[in-house]
Amino acid sequence: MTVSNKNLLVRPATEADAGPLIGVLAEAFHEGPVADWLVPDPTDRRTVYYRYFTDAFHHGLAHGQVYTTGDQTAVAIWYPRLERTSTDTGGRLEVLEHIAGAYAPKFVLLEEMFDAFHPDEPHHYLAYLAVDPVQQSRGIGAALLADYHRRLDDLGLPTYLEATNMRNRRLYLRLGYTAGPTIVLPTGGPIIWRMWRGAPTSSGRTPFPRTLPRRRPL
């Protein structure tokens, strides 16, 4: 369904949006501590990130829910996580090696760390929120999320995400998220802030769930 939210048109994305929205994702995430850690060479990063977010966008369409704005300047990729899920680690490794080449080990490590610390409590997971860098700081990202947040509140469901820098962390705090225990990426990697927007209750919102790191199968 297409909705208008604070004068911003928000609608489900389709395959026809792939070109512009993959570009938005790749550009929005191109700068920052995680990007510097994953692919230190900025030229290589542009190529690798375009491949990575091509995969992320199409995976979101196939397995999650993807929303964009009327002018395609922003995109959000959500996944309902209503029960514990398992990852095909062998298949994912093959995909990441194709996408990232020599940089694949850090991409694998990042995704494994995210998976290990993911809450088991039923929720919706905001995997990616991206706004065209030229359009940032105009409230577009917050407006893109507002309708989805309202629908999840009506369903009594919380949301979870990983913020990769302090600016994003401050945005999510303003949107009603709370910060949980952090993830520190190894090999000199940056800090990741785990964020939780609890389900509404009579006294506020449900707290950040206790999460024990998952053990990898032997």
SSE arrangement:
Layout: E1 3-5, E2 8-12, H1 18-28, H2 33-38, H3 42-63, E3 65-69, E4 74-81, H4 89-100, H5 104-116, E5 123-131, H6 140-155, E6 159-163, H7 166-174, E7 178-179, E8 183-184, E9 191-197, E10 200-201, E11 204-205
Parallel strand pairs: 5-6
Antiparallel strand pairs: 1-2, 2-3, 3-4, 4-5, 6-9, 7-9, 8-9, 10-11
What would you report as the Rg, rounded to the nearest angstrom?
17 Å
Intertermini distance: 44 Å
Strand-pairing-aware structural class = alpha+beta
| CATH homologous superfamily caption | Gcn5-related N-acetyltransferase (GNAT)
Number of domains: 1
Number of strands: 11
Portion in strands: 15-25%
According to CATH, what is the class?
Alpha Beta
Helical amount = 40-55%
Number of helices: 7
Keywords: Transferase
Pfam families: Acetyltransf_1 (PF00583)
InterPro entries: Acyl_CoA_acyltransferase, GNAT_dom, Trichothecene_AcTrans
Protein name: GNAT family N-acetyltransferase
Task: Describe it.
With 218 residues, this protein is of the alpha+beta class. The protein has a single domain (3-205), classed as 3-Layer(aba) Sandwich (Aminopeptidase), CATH 3.40.630. Helices cover 41% and strands 23% of the residues. It is built from 7 helices and 11 strands.
Write a concise synopsis of the structure shown:
One of its GO terms (molecular function) is acyltransferase activity, transferring groups other than amino-acyl groups. The protein is of the alpha+beta class and 218 residues long. It has seven helices and eleven strands.
